């Protein structure tokens, strides 16, 4: 999720469990610690185009990062306060607990989205994506902002502030699992509607769309075609499927077998769709990550990789990453998504 939401979650965790013993600084430190795993963005910038695909949500997002780094940060912070003569009021294990929990909140929250988080790094590069909520979810973020706003008001009793923070954590966690249940419902409903047809689906996968949990992007793979549709779980309706027949060509297989092709296939967790375009005497091959996309271009993702091949079938340049153009009118897109989700 976005850095601010991670900060809200870390701050709320700190408010609920540590502010009474460590003071207001615990909230700020918890918020900063919860954003820390995204420091891998800075580390991968010098690595070029493929750095984000390979390393983002990697080692710093593993389940081992929080306990190890949290132990170091907790000890360092405790020692700093000890030198200032404040050690008597703040025990070492409380500081460690603050940093371990807030650091762990980051990868666990990210795993509820579709991007893919390497929770077991460095022992495994498997990507975990539970497809529960979108990367940006204003409702979830607002739930976690409430206790921070209330906590900043001095006239409210400390017990009430803690109660609000705990309630926000419970509600926001329930919301994540609610999103997960909606995704499972979407896949079952898509399977039910497809069961009425003669050709069965070999794979059905549901993904959250923008800003809310009720509209799901459904990707269906059949032996020779891919279907993409959008299903609103706010209302009952028959899905309109848009069908795409992937081209079959040796150059597509050749791109997939390159190091870059293998990286992109791993990053997109296998949800790629190929496109073959004629260019002069050669071809351009594109692979799209179909987990994310816009309703008007169902066979396209938001990003992909591209390679040019000459007339002999050899690479005519480097394999590059590209992003599809964003809508010129974002408000129109949001209005369309709103109508698709909530209107009959």
Question: Can you describe this structure?
Answer:
α1 (3-17) packs antiparallel against α7 (92-110). The model has no long low-confidence stretch (mean pLDDT 91). It is globular, with a radius of gyration of 23 Å. The chain has helices at residues 3-17, 19-22, 25-35, 40-44, 51-55, 65-83, 92-110, 138-151, 158-194, 250-257, 259-267, 330-342, and strands at residues 203-208, 215-221, 226-232, 242-244, 272-279, 282-289, 303-309, 320-323. A hairpin with a 6-residue loop joins β1 and β2 (215-221). The longest helix has 37 residues, at 158-194. It has 12 helices and 8 strands. Among the domains are: 3-130, no CATH class; 246-323, no CATH class. Strands 1-2-3-4 form a 4-stranded antiparallel β-sheet, sandwiched between helices. It is α+β, with helices and mostly antiparallel strands and 344 residues long. Helix content is 46%, strand content 15%.
List keywords for this structure.
single chain; 344 residues; alpha+beta; four-stranded antiparallel β-sheet
List the helices and strands and how they pair.
Blueprint: H1 3-17, H2 19-22, H3 25-35, H4 40-44, H5 51-55, H6 65-83, H7 92-110, H8 138-151, H9 158-194, E1 203-208, E2 215-221, E3 226-232, E4 242-244, H10 250-257, H11 259-267, E5 272-279, E6 282-289, E7 303-309, E8 320-323, H12 330-342
Antiparallel strand pairs: 1-2, 2-3, 3-4, 5-6, 6-7, 7-8
Report the sheet-strand fraction. Answer: 5-15%
Gross geometry:
globular
Can you count the helices?
12
**Low-confidence spans: pLDDT under 50, at least 5 residues?**
none
Helix fraction bin: 40-55%
For the biggest sheet, the summary is:
4 strands, antiparallel
Give the ordered list of helices and strands.
HHHHHHHHHEEEEHHEEEEH
Q: Strand sequence of the main sheet, in spatial order? A: 1-2-3-4
How many distinct beta strands? 8
How far apart the termini lie comes to: 30 Å
Class of secondary structure makeup: alpha+beta
Rg over CA atoms, rounded to whole Å, is 23 Å
Mean pLDDT metric: 91
